[in-house]
Amino acid sequence: MTPSLIRGRPRRARSHISVRVAHTVLSGAVGVVWLVLPGMTIGAEDPVPAARAEPVAGTAAPPEQDETSAVDLVLPLAAVAAAGVLATYTYVRRSRRARTRTTPGVVSVRPPVPTPDDFERQTRTALVVADDSVRTSREELAFAEARFGAEAVEPFSHAVRAAQTELSAAFAIRRRYEQGVPKDDAARRQALVGVIGRCAEAGRRLDARAEAFDQLRALERGVGEALEIAEGRFRELAGRTGAAEATLAGLGDQYAPSASAPVLGYGEQAKDRLVFATSELNRARRTADSGAVEQAARPLRAAEGAIAQADVFVSGVERLSAELEQAANLVPAALTGAEAELASARAWLRDGHDVPVPAGELRARIGHADVVLAAVREELTGGPYDPLDALRRIARAVAPLGVRRAGVVPLAGWLAARSAVAAVTDFVNTHRGAVGAEARTLLAEAVRLLATGDDTATADELARRARESAERDVRVHGNPYDGPGDHVSGLAGAVLGGILLAEEPDGGPPVSFGGPATRGRRRLPEG
Prior knowledge:
Layout: H1 3-8, H2 11-41, H3 74-100, H4 116-148, H5 154-178, H6 185-217, H7 224-254, H8 257-260, H9 266-289, H10 293-351, H11 359-381, H12 387-398, H13 408-430, H14 437-452, H15 456-477, H16 484-489, H17 491-496
Helix pairs in contact: 2-3, 4-5, 4-6, 4-7, 4-10, 4-14, 5-6, 5-14, 7-9, 7-10, 9-10, 10-11, 10-12, 10-13, 11-12, 12-13, 13-14, 13-15, 14-15
């Protein structure tokens, strides 16, 4: 033990050392007394007169012994050994306890072991940061492609795809973990480590390309052409935003309120992002015109992020309008297809066909499907309704019958699931400054299931759960830039959308292509 550690211990620890030494000395002294005592009493007269024993007839008297028997030393030797072992054990145990104690002045020889809660927090953070990095990189890549073409940006597109592959694997591991797989504690910890490792690899792939991407865009050497592209997209979106608001109002008149709920308020939010983009585009142009070319890249990147999100809002309204029209046209055919599946199920029962479930259970499912289909038919003639929800209910009602044949009903379920997945994807893209790992994990699994087409009903359900989780995150997140002026300038929306990292007084830095180590590289100059 080093002198510095000894000096750092409290007085109580030094007193414990003294006590241990005293115990050791005392134990040794007791042992010595036990060893010497027999020698001291040899040849001495008994203090109490002893009765003389008469020899037994027929036996010889035992010979007198002039030396102490070896047996007499066994007990003293055992006492000395026991005392020594006890003293050594006490000293070692107390020394170990002192080394691992965390009281002031004592340095622990071991780093703290991460707890399961620590791993959980690290995993959630890693997923959110990696997911944000991929989404942001994809957004800026679109601006670079608009200027240089797809071939020029292919190395960076490849990096984004590779990062997305790693991220998808991380989300898949996390999803299985949440479902209780694996079950062993050690294996579960290893699974979380695997999630963190996959996220780190996703970020590394993007970080490795960030410098070359900056060299391609060369914003620090001049923002002229990039600024013109951003302004062109801005003007296009300004016109589309007004049309999107009119479309949204029309959806409210034509369909039930639930039909347009996924894009409610998107017109206003699109305008909010465009207000912020206006301010940043003007700042970028003024900065470049003043000769501070390098500083113009920062507001330009903020403007590009806001323009990209305004596009998501507007496109979301346009897409949902098209989806509802398509769904409304499909509902009558879906009802006809569902009736055909019901007829098949009834024929199974009538003809004694082998059915996938007990006959009583199948009858109950047929009865439930009848009720659902009757309700949908009534909605068709009863006024505004939600066509996507009608398709969802039709598909779910007949799926348990087990007919399982291709046709319009599976298509109905797929359309409903695709719409739900697209809606929550847009929401996460435009609110990523607040959305946590749970919603993103559910969304990733929904995307995977929808792509494979194996279980569109589960994909639909997971997407709807992801939307609920994301909206809950936004409600509880709050916003450090939430004053009246921040709303007027669009700053609050830019922070909520993850366009700015909320690390500086003006909400910046803006996010850029890259992973965790490079995405915030456009920070304010020090000093």
